[in-house]
Amino acid sequence: AGAVRAPLSGSAEPPVRCVCYGLGRFSGCPAARYQLAFLLLLLEELRVPPGRCSLFDPAFSAPEAAALGQLGLRLLPENEEGKHSVEGSATLFYMVHCGKALYNNLLWRNWSAGELCRMVIIGNSFRGIEERLLSRTLERDYSYIAKVLKGTEEVALPTHPRYLDTFNDTSVHWFPLQKLKELPPEVWDFVEEPTYQECEDLEIIRKEDGAEQRRLVAAP
């Protein structure tokens, strides 16, 4: 909670709503249950009502969807592929262990200093992504992550021996308005929607793949 509060005590606005992607099958996966529990505790800590937290994962089963509803959480009606606009509201995006394309799509959808400064992202370390990828691959396939790195503040979640596999490589990211304003003007000129045509390891279920994914989940 302290790591999440850090940006809120500085330049980031306290979130008034939350979006969660990629939680996974928490009915059968202990790590996903821990991540759900942490999300609920964060909402309580940040005083965000459960009804203002929306979730999506194409892997959710009907009983899992019902359980989330009983907790007061909302399900997004369709696969946004991460392209969710903050719409001028300070928003926490909870995206633990999501694919790089989801983070890239989210940044693209909110590609302006005025919108990015209203976002806090809990997810895979952007610094780690930069370190693990060749610079040309990062700039080609995930250009919005590459372009925002110098405008990003990042704090790693504290490690805990019991939850090493649950929250490893997870950081809190925020985008101070002053740092964003210091980026070169040409950074904001290119706003083409990502397509990932050359990406070989795309870690995202596309909207058109959703029906097939649901059939696989429902299969015995």
From TrEMBL:
Q: Which InterPro entries match?
A: SRR1-like, SRR1L
Q: What GO terms fall under cellular component here?
A: cytoplasm; nucleus
Short name of one Pfam family: SRR1
Which domain of life does the UniProt lineage start with?
A: Eukaryota
Which intervals of the chain form a coiled coil?
Answer: none
Stretches assigned to the SRR1-like domain: 12-174
Record family assignment: Belongs to the SRR1 family.
- State what protein this is by name: SRR1L protein
What organism, scientifically named, is this protein from? Answer: Chordeiles acutipennis (Lesser nighthawk)
Q: Mind giving the lineage of the organism this protein is from? A: Eukaryota, Metazoa, Chordata, Craniata, Vertebrata
Q: Corresponding gene?
A: Srrd
